């Protein structure tokens, strides 16, 4: 389900685009964010992630609302063993699951990520603002000779996208 709609963007970011063009821009930006960071947690939909163990901690890609199950195995085709909740500690906001000991090589965590949609909407609105207001020049001068400074739009977009990153391990 899209995080933004035309009416919301039009209210927050005044623009002259028609509805079809604005909808296409929204869809393109949301698709890029999903390809790069995955789908934001909604606080209700579970996901499974296979994580690399062999340490005391494993880290999920999103902050944790709740954990449904944790299994581990030592080889790719090995038989998974379910780990009882008493044998690990969940650090929800860190997306960290700490084991009483060391995890085996492969750890599969089925969990519900925290609802991050408001934070993602905020970042997407800023990306939309940059995309709509983007100009070729940041500054222009006519003194003695013509000079202009071009803005680094990619750097500005990356600054916004950093807000969506959870962990980079």
Outline of the structure:
By secondary structure, this protein is of the alpha+beta class. The chain is built from four helices and nine strands, in the order H-H-E-E-E-E-E-E-E-H-E-E-H. Strands 1-7-3-4 form a four-stranded antiparallel β-sheet, with no helix packed on it.
Report what the structure shows.
The chain is built from four helices and nine strands. With 169 residues, the chain is of the alpha+beta class. The strands form three sheets. The protein has a four-stranded antiparallel sheet, with no helix packed on it. A three-stranded antiparallel sheet has the order 2-6-5, with no helix packed on it. Strands 8-9 form a two-stranded antiparallel sheet. Strand 8 and strand 9 form a beta hairpin. The longest helix is centred in the first third of the chain and has 19 residues, at 19-37. The radius of gyration is 22 Å and the shape is elongated.
Set out the fold topology.
Layout: H1 6-12, H2 19-37, E1 47-52, E2 57-59, E3 64-73, E4 81-82, E5 88-91, E6 96-99, E7 106-113, H3 117-133, E8 139-141, E9 147-149, H4 153-161
Antiparallel strand pairs: 1-7, 2-6, 3-4, 3-7, 5-6, 8-9
